[in-house]
Structures are given as C-alpha cells and as structure tokens.
Amino acid sequence: MKAKIISLFHYLLVFLLIIFNTSCQAKSINIVDTNNNDQIELNFYGYKTEAINVVAIEEILQAYMDKNPNITITYESVKGTEYYEILKKRLASNNYDDIFMIDEDNLQQLTNYNYFEDLSKLKTIKNFNTNSLEQMVQPDNTIPYIPTSISAFGLYCNLDLLEKHHQSVPKNNQEFMAVCQYFIEQGITPIIANNDISLKTIALAKGLYPIYQSPEKDRIIASLNQDPSILCNYLKEGYQYVKQLIDNKFIDAATTLKTEKTADDLIQFEENKNPFMLTGAWASVRVEKSSPDLNFKVYPYPILDDGAILVSNIDTRVCINAKGPHITEAKKFIEYLSQEDVMWKFVNSQSSFSPLKEQRIADDPKIQELSPYLTSEKTILGSDSNINLPLWSLTHDGITQLLTGNSIDSALEIIKNYEQ
C-alpha cells in the first residue's frame, strides 16, 4: 500500500513538472514577442522656445507618432546662447540627442567632431530649392543638416506713428536718414535695436552687398576664406554705417546694449513711441498677438542709395547625431519633416519662408513686403556657408565695440585677430 502511495506521488510530481515547464515556455515566447514591439524613443533638442513654434513642432511630432506607434519623440528646448553650451556637452556625452538644431557658426566649430550624419541620400532632398542646396551641400558633397525655414530680418514700421507725423515708409537710404532726423528733432529716438541681430545684420548688408553683386563673387569669397583681413575691407563700410546711426542718436546705444532680441525690443516697440525697430521678421506674429491694435508692417532695410536690401538666413537647421543609437529611425522622421505640407506648418508658424521649391507665401500679412526680395538681386545671406568664418559671432562682437564707444578699427581688429 505504501508503495502505491509513493508511486502515485511520483506520477503526480512528474505531471506538475510538465505543467510548470509548459507554462514557463509560454511565458518565454511572450517575452520575445514583447521585445519585438519595443518603443523607440528619439530625443529632439532645439532652440525654438516660443509658444507658437513649440505648438507647431509638437503637432508635427504627434502626427508622426500617430503614423508610427512604435516611435516616441520628445522635444526639449533652451533659448539663447546657453543652448549651444548645453548642446556641446550633450553631444560629447553620446547619451542624449538623436536630433538637434544648429546654426552656421556652431556647425563650423563642430564639423571635425563627426557629430553630423550625412543626409544627402534622403528621398526628400530633391524637394529643396537651389539656394538652399547651395548652402546645404558641403565641399565633400555631404549634407549635414536640412533647413526648415528661411528667416528674414527687417525694418518694423509703425504706420500710424509715421502717418501722425506726416512721414512715409522710407524706400532708400536718403529717405531713411531724413525720416530718422525728423524724429530726432521731435525728441523721439527713431530706431529700436537689440544687442544681437539688429545692427550686425545692418553691417553685413551694407558691407557684403558689393560682394554679392560682383561677377567675381566666388573668387572674392575664396580670397577672404584664405585671409580674414580681406573681410575687413568690406565690413568697414558696414561698421561705418552703424557708427553713423549711433553718432546721430538714431538709436540709443546704452539701451541697445541691454535689449534682448525678440524680447525686450518687442516690448519697447509695442509701447507705440518709436517709428522703427530692427529685428527678425519671425517675431511679427508675437507683436501682433501682444498688441493687436498696433498698425505695423515689416520691410527690407532701406539702406541702399537706390533702394532696400533683404537679409535672410537658411535657418533652423536640423541635424541627426551620427553617434546616436537611432540613426535610421531619425532619418525617417527627417524625411517626414521635409515633406511640403509638414514643413509648411513649421515655416508658417514662424512667419518665415520655405526652403523648398514650392513658392507658398506665409499667411502673415505683416511680412508680405519681404517676399519679392527673396528672389531679387538685392538680398544677401547673413550667415553664408561658403564663407568659412563665424560671421555671426565676429560681427556681434564688433557691434558691441561700437555700442560701447570704441572705434571702427577696434571692431575690425576682432576679425584681423581671428584664428581659423
């Protein structure tokens, strides 16, 4: 009897082991299946922090994630120069970003670190217009970024204030100087400027315009790439023009030094006390939202003897981290981003212009006067990829010299002392 009990116990134990083993095998299969459907998380780091831009970016990301349920994209942003300080640390760590934004100066600084995945094989590269491609394609035929907008810089004109004083929107330099002098005589500082993009884009426009008009443009650019001091010969005229604005009190130098771009300058302009402001056209939508009763438009810089000139940039450049863990997935997202309708959502949110072949005009009526100049001879790039110098930072430092009362020679010395 005892033997039978032991035998039955033995069979029961074998049966339970079989059941347990089968259960474990089933769980193992489920785990493998779950791993095949793991979420891929892409980190996107950028410098666009304005609410309207962030909303557009988030809508684009959400639409892409809806189409690709296994992809999650997180957008993180920091405004100002702090962005690049943090970006360099994040890239060096190899732990953070799959996708990031860059500008020309920092692209030049970081080129030798192999952070930029080549995007030349993306299917959507053919969508970009010729002007954009001339900036995107590097000497070795690689493409380290795609631009997602063409930004423009302009003269904001308070139309009601001009009309109140029986003045017109200036169309050339002579008219601009005359109307500025008129407001000085009324005790009004005519031009609001910030401590970054306002006056350096004026200097670049005035100084580099002859290069862009020359049939030997490529030769001149090649020569100044070899010898930065040659750039001084051109920028000298730009700095002279800015110094004239300062000396004539057309801008308040002390206030300008403390005025943050597309922030403090907008607040000052919205007070409805000054006829002009120099800043990025992309801020027009914010001015209109903050001060809906302010009647203004944005125009090209009226600083030429025979008319106005537009300063634009191939802008909001998006790159893929070549050292990131999800290069293939990031490229698929960039292809999605560079489709016409998708990119237009972002372009339009910035009151900017498209880098693609399409000719859509931004919905913002305040910037319509800029559109014809995009394909005109009277336009320059504020930050040209063909010029192997950090123009943006060099001119920023030069303008600071002028605003603090130093000489044109001291501003030019910064360029002469630059070591490539």
Automatic annotation (TrEMBL):
User: Which keywords belong to this entry?
Assistant: Cell membrane, Lipoprotein, Membrane, Palmitate, Signal
Q: List the InterPro entries.
A: Bact_solute-bd_prot1 (IPR050490), SBP (IPR006059)
> Could you tell me the superkingdom of the organism this chain comes from?
Bacteria
Q: Give the residue range of the signal peptide.
A: 1-26
Nucleotidyltransferase recorded as keyword: no
Which ranges form a coiled coil? none
Protein name per Swiss-Prot or TrEMBL: Multiple sugar-binding protein
Its source organism is Thomasclavelia ramosa
Q: Which gene encodes it?
A: msmE_2
